[in-house]
Amino acid sequence: MKKFLTAAFIFLSPLFVFAQDITGLWQGTMHNDSTGTSLPYELLIKKEKNKYTGYSYTWFSVNGEQCYGVKKVKVSVAKDGKIVVKDDELLENTYPDGPDKNIKQLNVLDLTSNGSGSSMDGPFVTNNTKRYFEVVGSISIKRVTTLTESSLMNYFERKDAQSGVASSK
Quick one: CA torsion of 42, 48, 50, 53, rounded to 10 degrees? Predict the structure, then answer.
């Protein structure tokens, strides 16, 4: 009986992950293995019509200067329960040299829930481009309930304010 319960638990575990809610704001760090640096990382996941979408806010240090990029991302849940986040479109950035057109980031994250909240951890990789080699590292983020300290939410507020000014003219 014990073997049956263990096998049933292992078989049904991915189903429990599918039932968990991954929507919301996630904050943490992105660690670049090649440079050894960890930088802030934010991810906002929404669900509309049974489809996940979202946005990421990523910081970079370029020649000692702090830069950021805001990207639209596609989010999915794989059959094994992993959360897959793929870059879709770069919306805004402060990179000193314009970004390569086809550079994309892929995150493959494990969702963990415990009494203190939910977190996602796992590797990320970017693709090679003509100018840059791939970058690999890891991401560690936790779901947050307060939005006051969010650069991503501040970005949306600023965009809403700009569109409100434009629409009132």
Answer: -30
d(CA 22, CA 45): 7
Distances (CA, A) of 115 to 28, 103, 112: 18, 37, 10
| Tokens linked to 26 | 């996630």
Burial of residue 129 (CB within 10 Å: 0-12, 13-18, 19+) is middle
φ, ψ of residue 17 to 5 degrees: the values are -65, -40
Task: Report pLDDT digits (tens) over 19-69.
Answer: 578 999 999 999 999 889 899 999 999 999 999 999 999 887 777 888 899
Q: Please count the residues of the chain.
A: 169
Distance CA 69, CA 26 (A): 16
CA angle 56–60–53, rounded 5-degree value: 10
pTM of the shown model? 0.77
Backbone angles phi, psi at 159, to 5 degrees: -65, -40
| CA pair distance 65, 95, nearest whole angstrom | 9
Q: Which of 25-29, 131-135, 164-168 has the highest mean pLDDT?
A: 25-29
